[in-house]
Design brief:
single chain; alpha/beta; 13 strands; binds guanosine-5'-triphosphate
Length: 349
């Protein structure tokens, strides 16, 4: 089955927090086949960073703010799609034929797809395309054990992309593959690091009857769900929160590194995600940092600052940790002058 002529195909790129969605999106956008794609990015947290991390800034990248696309910003999603379409019709943006939505890592994909199918105006112009779900080879098992969103993201996928296989053992990868095949036997399962991965096949329309599944999501098999709240777009459970920090003066890398290492050693299970763009003492270019629970990825120098704003921006997504306490600990340790730095205090349980 191919994209329907006359309709804009909407692909959903989903996957749990830090599973590698933005990394995959960058790769997809570098393909000639997707030069005609517009992008909607939705992030959990008050400040969005992903559009900066893609390092492609243009009018066709739209950031959906303040909430998660599956619950609080569903209306915003519909409006953003209509707005993009209207701009396309008026020649204000190039004539894209595809929209890729990168959801938050906590999104339940069902309400997102049903928004497109249910809205009378959207239905007229857009068609849901394949759903691509990234699953992290290092953290995926634990996320499937603990978070129903992770199961639902895997269950609805047309394409399951296992990421970070370079950081996992063969047996970890195989165990994850088997589990994903049990959750969703129909999906095409690939590894992001495969040499022969055909990126263009990820967004080709799938032959599965996902549209029917969307109307009766309860038919899906979810493995050992621990809690079952946001199936109908209800907000995420109260314990999950985000805290953002914006810092105007350059940050000392050593102090920050010690603080972050200690934090993740002690509370890695509860720090679902940390990401940031940092202005470091002695560095001209910004440095992007990423952590997912206990895993800290190698920091990356970005090409340039995305705008004139040189402040450091950090987002933490927490499960059951007090963000304000975390913020105070960060400020006390990383922002104090080295000679008056207080003893390292990481929030208690
Ligand atoms: N080694 C390795 N690192 C990866 C791979 N895929 C992603 N990463 C790293 O994982 C971190 C998180 O990746 P992102 O692409 O930002 O993940 P995300 O799913 O968009 O994150 P959220 O939007 O916050 O949920 C970054 O440091 C990436 O460079 C991979 O296949 N191998």
């Amino acid at each position: 089955m191919h994209d329907e002529p006359g309709f804009v195909t909407v692909n959903l790129l989903t996957g749990f927090l830090g599973s590698g969605k933005t990394t995959l999106l960058r790769r997809l956008l570098a393909e000639d086949a997707f030069a005609d794609a517009a992008v909607l990015i939705n992030e959990f947290g008050e400040i969005g960073l992903d559009h900066h991390l893609i390092e492609r800034i243009d009018d066709e990248i739209v950031l959906l703010r303040s909430g998660c696309v599956c619950c609080t910003v569903r209306g915003e999603l519909a409006e953003a799609l209509k707005d993009l379409y209207s701009k396309r019709e008026r020649g204000l943006v190039p004539p894209f034929r595809r929209v890729i939505i990168e959801s938050t890592g906590l999104a339940d994909p069902f309400p997102v797809l049903s928004t497109i199918k249910a809205d009378p105006i959207l239905r007229h112009h857009f068609r849901p395309g394949s759903v691509v779900t990234a699953v992290d080879a290092v953290n995926g098992q634990r996320q499937l054990d603990t978070y129903i969103e992770s199961n639902r993201q895997a269950a609805i996928a047309d394409r399951l992309v296992i990421t970070k296989t370079d950081l996992a053992t063969d047996s970890e990868r195989q165990a994850l593959e088997s589990r994903l095949r049990r959750i969703n036997p129909d999906a095409l399962l690939v590894c992001a690091g495969d040499d022969d991965l055909d990126l263009s096949s990820l967004l080709q329309n799938a032959t599965t009857m996902r549209g029917d599944h969307v109307q009766s999501p309860s038919g899906f098999y979810c493995e050992e769900p621990v809690w079952l709240t946001n199936a109908d777009g209800a907000p995420h459970r109260a314990a999950i929160s985000s805290v953002t920090m914006t810092v105007d003066r350059p940050i000392d890398w050593t102090a920050f590194g010690i603080w972050l290492t200690m934090l993740l050693n002690r509370h890695g299970e509860r720090v679902l995600r940390v990401k940031g763009i940092l202005n470091l003492v002695g560095e001209e270019r910004p440095v992007a940092i990423h952590g997912v629970q206990h895993l800290v990825h190698t920091p990356v120098h970005m090409e340039a600052w995305p705008s004139n704003d040189r402040s450091s921006r950090l987002v933490f997504i927490l499960d059951g940790l007090d963000g304000e306490v975390l913020k105070r600990s960060f400020e006390a340790f990383t922002l104090a002058d080295a000679d008056v730095r207080p003893p390292l205090a990481i929030p208690a349980e």
